[in-house]
Amino acid sequence: MADDEGTQATNDDASECKRYAVQLGYWNDPFINYFIRQTTRKPPEINRGYYARVKGIENFINKFSKLSGGKGQIINLGAGFDTLYWRLRDAGCSPQNFIELDFPTVTAKKCYHIKKHKQLIDKLNTEDGEIRFSSTDLHAANYHLIGTDLRHISELSNKLIQAEVDFNIPTLFLAECVLVYIDSNAASALIKWLAQKFSNSLFVNYEQVNMRDKFGQVMLSNLRCRGCLLSGVDDCESLETQQRRFTISGWEGSNAWTMVEVYDSLPESERIRIERVEMLDERELLIQLLQHYCIAVAWNGTMFKNLSIAQG
Ligand code: SAM
After folding, report:
1. What is the CATH number of the domain that holds 94?
2. pLDDT above 90 (res 220)
3. Distance from residue 269's CA to the centre of ligand 1 (Å)
C-alpha cells in the first residue's frame, strides 16, 4: 500500500538523523554506519531532540536490564535499523532473547546489511555457530529479526513463537515513533494483546504528544514526523491520553513525560557536553519541539511498577 511505503521510509529518515547526530559526537554508536551510509546536515534542535530520545529510552532499557538481571527479553516493535542489540552486546548487557519486528521490506534491508558486515554478524550470539536466514527473517541464538505487519496479531503471534518468545519472563517492549503510524484501532488491539500475553512486562513508547492547540486544531507545522498526519493523532493529544491508551487496554499502570522533562532529567555533565557540540540560535525552537514528543511507560506486574525518568 502507498501509505505503508511512506511509513517504511520513516525508518530511513530516523536512521539518517541518528547517524548524523552520532557523526557529530552527540552519542556513541559504532554500528549505525553499517546500516546507513550517507546522511545530510540536520538542524541542531533536531540533533538535540534525537539525543534526548535515544538517552531517554536508554535510561529505561538500563533500568529494565538491572531489574531483570539479564534474564529478560527485549521486543522492539517497528525496530527499523536500530542498533540496540549490538550496543548492548558490546556493553556486556545482552538480554536472554532479543526480537526485532518491522515490515518485511524493512527487515529484508536489515538482513542484507547484517549479512554484508562481519562486524555485525560476528556479534550474533551463536552457541553452535548456526544463523538461519530467509530474505526477510534472521534467527540466531538470542537475536531474531522478523518481518511482519504489527496490525496482524495472529501472524505476529506465530512469528514471535518462531523467535522463541517466552511469555513468562520479564519483557521490555520498545516502540520508538511507531504506534503513531498504526491506525488507532489496530494499535489498541496490539497493546491489548501484549498486555494479555505478557504478565511481567514494561512498555516504553516514544511519540508525539500535545498535538492540539488551544482551539482544538491539530498542529503539524513544526513537526517533522509524518505519523502525525495519520489517525493515531487522538492518542497523542496529551500525556493523559498517552497513559490512558495503556490502562484502558489492560496494562496495570502507566506514566508519561514530555521530552522537555526527559531532557532536563539527563545528567547535567552530559547536557553541558552536548550543548557545546553545536550552538543553538533559538532555544525556544528546541523547547517547542521537545514539548511535542513524550516517553510513556506502562507496566504489568510489580517488577517494573512506577519507574521514573530519574537517572539510575
Ligand atoms: N524505531 C526505529 C527508530 O526509532 O529508529 C524506527 C522508527 S521509524 C520512524 C518507524 C518504523 O515503524 C518503521 O521502520 C516502520 O516500517 C515501522 N512500522 C510502522 N508501522 C508498522 C507496522 N504496521 N508493522 C511493522 N512495522 C511498522
Report:
1. 3.40.50.150
2. no
3. 32
CB half-sphere exposure, 144, CA atoms < 13 A: 22
> Residue 150 corresponds to which cell in the numbers above?
504489527
**How far is the C-alpha of 127 from the C-alpha of 279, rounded, in Å?**
48
Within a domain: 201: yes
Phi, psi of 113 (to 5 degrees): -65, -40
Alpha-carbon gap, residue 93 to 306, rounded angstroms: 23
b/e for 64-83, b at 16 or more Cβ within 10 A? bbeebeeebbbbbbbbbbbb
Q: What is the mean pLDDT of residues 259-288?
A: 95
Average pLDDT over residues 96-109: 98
Asked whether residue 237 is domain-assigned, the answer is: yes
Q: What is the DSSP letter of 182?
A: S
Residue 118 lies in a domain: yes
- Residue 222: pLDDT above 60? no
Question: What residues flank ligand 1, with Cβ below 6 Å?
Answer: 7-8, 10-11, 14, 78-80, 82, 102-103, 106, 149-151, 176-178, 181-182
Give me the number of domains the chain comprises: 1
How far apart, in whole angstroms, are the C-alpha atoms of residue 78 and residue 149? 9
The DSSP 8-state label assigned to residue 74 in this structure reads E
User: What was the pLDDT predicted at 88?
Assistant: 97
Query: Hey, which of 19, 32, 102, 151 would you mutate to test ligand 1's pocket, going by the most ligand atoms within 8 Å of its Cβ?
Result: 102
Asked whether residue 311 is domain-assigned, the answer is no
Q: Is the pLDDT of residue 228 over 60?
A: no
